Fold each of these.
Amino acid sequence: MNNVKIYKMDVTELEDSGKFEGYYREMSAERRRKIDRCRRAGAKRLSLGAGILLDRGLSEFGLREKSVKILQGENGKPYLADYPDIRFNLSHSNHLVLAVFAEKEVGCDIELVDRQNLKLAKRFFCPSEYGHLLHQTDEEQQRQEFFRLWTLKESFLKVTGKGMKVPLNSFCFLFENEVRVRQQIDTAEYQFREMIFERAAEPEREVYRAAVCLRMP
């Protein structure tokens, strides 16, 4: 994934009210409105964290979050109105925020590895993906693979810009020498990158899985 920039932030540092306010003042009016609409303190930190990473990524192009116009596509995917060659995507889960920037369409997803949901997988995943989960040797590996599939699927959906209008079982992931997706949405090729992050927490460490999907020309 050449020329793909990936940024991650642990928003617990924003529990410091002074630091929160300092970053908040640097955000655009629209980002501040998004933060203000959040009811929970944790959600406010995640929204601000997304703005911070967006600002950080845009700075590589000589831009700032508060100086660009961000619009949403038909299904909610954000894009830069005046800079169509800069593609980005954001995701967050629990305490971590992820941002990616690329010259091609890109999507990302990050999820805290919590409890797997085999009933959901049976109903919404492809039969081969559900079978992949059932063939895992232990519960922990099954849990990891569930969230692996979930992040891959979300990252792909976000690249297409169609979101949840595309049924989760209408495209399937194949795990061979590299991750591939079998799909009929378009004729494009897609590349994937997977990541695992660990975060110290009580009563036990948190594990996050993340995926980035890049649409090739």
Amino acid sequence: MKPEYKNIFIHGAISAQKIAESISQHSRKTTIGGHGIFLGQVRADEKPSGKVNAIEYSAYEEMALEKAHEIREDAFAKYPLICMHIYHSLGKVEAGEICLFVFVSSKHRKAAIDACTEIVERIKKELPVWGKEIISESESSWKENNI
């Protein structure tokens, strides 16, 4: 029997309401002293063929969920974290919208910030998630992750 991993995927953009609710749910947790928060946003980059209007995200979901679980477990083993949330978009996300939300909480800020940074870097390098930049209805190209 395959293990069941926490689903990190949201179809479409990650809403400001989702982000606010996640943060709000932690306001009563009095053991938390600091949060590390990363919001990845789709840029309207200028390309030779035009401006990026959106990114269409796809993933090898089963492998991505397994890898996200591994990244999560590694972070909990390395840092004194209280909680962690990872959300990544699938499908079309318009320029200016949020496509990645990483939220890490710890007793002290340094652990939260360091863990958040490491988690984001590992997600960008290791998760089998791909983005196709949409320039127009007939123009698109696969995005390369830049660090």
Amino acid sequence: MTTCLKQPLTEATSYDTDFHAWALRNAELLRQGRLDELDAEHIAEELESMGASERRELLNRLQVLLLHLLKYQYQPECRGKSWRLTINHQRTAIERLLEQSPSLRRLLDADSLDKVYRKAVRDVIIETDLDAELFPGGCPYDLAHVLDEDWLPAD
């Protein structure tokens, strides 16, 4: 089956002027095997960017998860359905990211967990006015527990 290119490469379909048209055109070229016509440099940049975006999403979701686990632990009088839902949603989103891109799991080492934890502590202090001295310097939670849908920190 042969498809004709709907639009030749013009200024209107260049990477810098119309990303959507550029992406569609390069996808079509790729499907047709016309590799010599691909915008390889920009395609490589986009693929790298996609990987960086997934890394950011994973670490951001982990930060939100840790923030809510900390609030759950250090403000037991404020616990509600909203916190539990946020904890569950973040765990589900992280699980999906790791299923779709298992190589992201390597980002979840102890060092990364501690870095994200420190940012979550910063946020929880701002949000709750709790004293910074209340929180351990390093993440007190094991990653397996953090991601375990049945686990919640003790009071």
Amino acid sequence: MTIEEIKELLRIFNESGVAELELQRGENRLRVRRSGTNQEIVVPVAAAPVIATAPVAAPVAAAPAAPANVVTKAPEPDSGHVLVKSPIVGTFYESPAPGSASFVKVGDSVEPGQVLCIIESMKLMNEIESEVSGIVAAKLVENGRAVEYGEALFAIRPR
């Protein structure tokens, strides 16, 4: 991805009403997210360095620290945990509405069929349910983050 291509994408992004744009071409990945009046730009590009003169309205913000109940890596495969994976591409939400309590927290007991989170995809809210009974050992995704198909969302220690 060239600097000119990135500048053009940023120009189009700024002119549109799109809230988030993510593009991956080979090992190059560009993610731009609009948050209120602030904009966050994450551009890890392996092939070419990105110069800081890219036209943006706000400075690049450092990634916020993950909340205490978010684990950044999945448990070891031999740990006996069951991973709940996203069945679709979309946006992860831990609660039914902004400001309301999470469906589950780390340490909560869950039963089969209990709603763990919502994945929004194409303006549809898809409830993700537990398939096992057990204890939520880890929440692996930050609220409001885009998730991919097959990405681990929770680790559950079965009973």
